[in-house]
Design a protein that fits this description.
The protein is of the alpha/beta class and 420 residues long. It has 2 domains: 5-79 and 377-419, Roll (Urease, subunit C, domain 1); 81-369, Alpha-Beta Barrel (TIM Barrel). Helices cover 37% and strands 21% of the residues. It has 17 helices and 16 strands. It has helices spanning 27-30, 53-59, 97-101, 106-111, 116-125, 128-144, 160-176, 199-216, 234-246, 263-270, 283-292, 300-305, 314-319, 340-350, 355-361, 364-369, 396-400, and strands at residues 5-14, 34-43, 46-52, 67-70, 75-78, 80-82, 147-153, 180-188, 222-225, 250-255, 274-277, 295-298, 324-326, 387-390, 407-412, 415-419. Strands 1, 2, 3, 4, 5, 14, 15 and 16 form an 8-stranded mixed β-sheet that branches. Strands 6-7-8-9-10-11-12-13 form an 8-stranded parallel β-sheet. Helix 6 (128-144) packs across helix 7, helix 7 (160-176) packs across helix 8 and helix 8 (199-216) packs parallel to helix 9. The longest helix has 18 residues, at 199-216. It is globular. 57% of the residues are buried. It binds 2H-imidazol-4-ylacetic acid and zinc ion.
Length: 420
C-alpha cells in the first residue's frame, strides 16, 4: 500500500474509535481512546494505519513521494463534525442586536416579523449564486477551525421555489469546497407571513408540494421541523415528519428549546436520528430518547448567545444513556458562530461535560447524527482521512484555552487543506 501522507510524533492521537455501529452513550461517551506519541498513515483519501509512531513506522514504507508531517507538540483529532447548521442564508441580522440588548426575547423579535422572517426576506431576494458565495465563505471559516463535515439546513426560503433554490445552493457549496455538507430540508422552520393566519395551509404546501420535489430531486437526506410554542405544535410536527418518513427521509427535530412541548417524546416515537436543543426536555423525554437511541444534539452556543441562564441538562442525559452530540447551530440569528472549538469551551463550562465526552460529541456521535459514521468521526483504518491537528500539548488544552483558533493543520480526504 502506498503511503501518501504520514503524520508522526503527535503528542496525542485521539481516535474516537470503536463506535461504528452505534453512537456512544453512558460510559461509552465518557471514554476516549488516546495514543501517546501517535501516528496516522494515509493512503490516498483513506486512513491506512493508526498507532504509536514506532508501530506505524515499523509497518509502513515511506518513500520520496510520501508527504511527512511532524506533529510534535500537537494533538490529532478526527476532522470535526458539526451536525446542526443553517449555513446557507441571505443577509445578516446584526441590526437585531439592539433589540436583544433591550431584552426583547428571540420569539418576540420573530413575532414582530424579524428574526427568522428577516432572514427569509433576504434569502428570497438573494440569487442562488449569492447564496452559494455566502455558503462557501462560511465553510472556509469552518474548515479553518477544524470542521471537515457539517449538516446544512434549508428553511429561509419558505416557498417551494426558495427552498429548492437553497437546497441547490447547499449542493453547490458542498461541491465547491472541502467541507462535506449533509443536506436537511427545514421547510417547517417558521410560518411565512403570507400564511400568518393559516399555518396548516402552509404545512399543506410543505407536505404536498415541497417534500415530493425535494425527494424527487434528491436534495435532502433529512427533514427537520422547528417544534416550538408559536411556531409548530407537536401535532403539526408529527404531520410533516411522518410525510417525510414515508418518502424515505431521515428525521430531525428542533425540540424542547424554549417551551417544553414534548418534541423529544415525538422524536423518540418517530425514530428520529436526533432531537436538537433540548434545554427544557422532560424526564420522560430523556427516558424515551435513551430507549429509542435518539441522539441529543445540544447547541450550547445558542443558549449562550440568547443570554439564557438555563442550559440543556447534558449531565442528566448522559447519565440516562442518551448519546450526546454537540453542534454550533450556525445561523444568522440565534448563533452566528461556526467555530466548534468555542462549543468545546461552552460545553465544558456550562453543560459540565468532560473533555472526553465533548470530543466524542463533536466527532463520532456527531457523525452518527448525520448518518456519516461509516466514513468519518473517528480515526480508523479504511475511514476517510479527515484530520484536525491542534497546536495543543494534550486534548484537555482544547477545553482550557478559548477564543484562539488552535488549528495548525486540517486534512480532508488525505489532502492538506489548511496549514497555519
Ligand atoms: O435564524 O433564528 N432557532 N431557528 C430555530 C433558528 C434558531 C435560526 C434563526
Ligand atoms: Zn437550528
Amino acid at each position: 500500500m502506498e503511503i501518501t501522507l504520514l503524520i508522526k510524533n503527535a503528542n496525542q492521537v485521539v481516535t474516537s474509535r470503536g463506535a461504528s455501529e452505534k453512537p456512544l452513550s453512558g460510559t461509552g461517551q465518557k471514554a476516549l481512546t488516546v495514543i501517546e506519541d501517535g501516528a496516522v498513515a494515509v493512503c490516498g483519501e483513506t486512513i491506512a494505519l493508526v498507532g504509536s509512531t514506532a508501530e506505524v513506522l515499523d509497518k509502513i514504507q515511506v518513500d520520496d513521494s510520501t508527504k511527512v508531517l511532524d506533529a510534535s507538540g500537537k494533538v490529532v483529532l478526527p476532522g470535526l463534525v458539526d451536525p446542526h447548521t443553517h449555513v446557507v442564508f441571505g443577509g445578516s441580522r446584526e441590526h437585531e442586536l439592539a433589540l436583544k440588548l433591550q431584552g426583547v426575547p428571540y420569539l418576540e423579535i420573530l413575532a414582530r416579523g424579524g428574526g427568522i422572517l428577516s432572514s427569509v426576506e433576504a434569502t428570497r431576494a438573494a440569487s442562488k449564486e449569492e447564496l452559494i458565495a455566502g455558503g462557501i465563505k462560511s465553510c472556509q471559516q469552518m474548515l479553518a477551525q477544524g470542521t471537515t463535515t457539517a449538516e446544512a439546513k434549508s428553511g429561509y426560503g419558505l416557498t417551494t421555489k426558495a427552498e429548492i433554490k437553497t437546497l441547490e445552493a447547499i449542493k453547490a457549496v458542498d461541491r465547491a469546497q472541502p467541507v462535506d455538507l449533509i443536506p436537511t430540508f427545514l421547510g417547517a422552520h417558521a410560518v411565512p407571513k403570507e400564511y400568518k393566519e393559516n399555518p396548516d395551509g402552509y404545512l399543506d404546501v410543505v407536505i404536498k408540494d415541497m417534500l415530493p420535489q425535494v425527494v424527487e430531486k434528491n436534495l435532502a437526506r433529512y427533514c427537520d421541523v422547528f417544534c416550538e410554542e408559536g411556531i409548530f405544535s407537536v401535532e403539526q410536527s408529527r404531520r410533516v415528519l411522518m410525510a417525510a418518513r414515508n418518502l424515505g427521509l431521515g428525521l430531525k427535530m428542533h425540540a424542547d428549546e424554549i417551551s417544553p412541548l414534548g418534541g423529544s417524546e415525538l422524536a423518540a416515537e418517530l425514530g428520529a436520528v436526533s432531537a436538537d436543543h433540548l434545554l427544557v426536555i422532560s424526564d420522560q423525554g430523556i427516558e424515551n430518547m435513551a430507549a429509542a437511541g435518539v441522539i441529543g444534539v445540544i447547541l450550547p452556543g445558542t443558549t449562550f448567545y440568547l443570554c439564557e441562564d438555563h442550559y440543556a441538562p447534558a449531565r442528566k442525559m448522559i447519565e440516562a444513556g442518551v448519546p450526546v452530540a454537540l453542534a454550533t447551530d450556525f445561523n444568522p440569528g440565534s448563533s452566528p458562530n461556526n467555530n466548534l472549538q468555542l462549543i468545546v469551551n461552552i460545553a465544558c463550562l456550562y453543560l459540565r461535560m468532560t473533555p472526553p465526552e465533548v470530543i466524542n460529541a463533536i466527532t463520532i456521535n456527531a457523525a452518527h447524527a448525520i448518518g456519516r459514521s461509516e466514513q468519518v468521526g473517528s480515526l480508523e483504518e479504511g475511514k476517510m482521512a479527515d484530520l484536525a491537528l491542534f497546536a495543543a500539548p494534550n486534548y484537555d488544552y482544547l477545553a482550557y484555552r478559548y477564543g484562539t483558533n488552535l488549528i495548525s493543520t486540517v486534512i480532508k480526504k488525505g489532502k492538506i487543506v489548511v496549514e497555519v
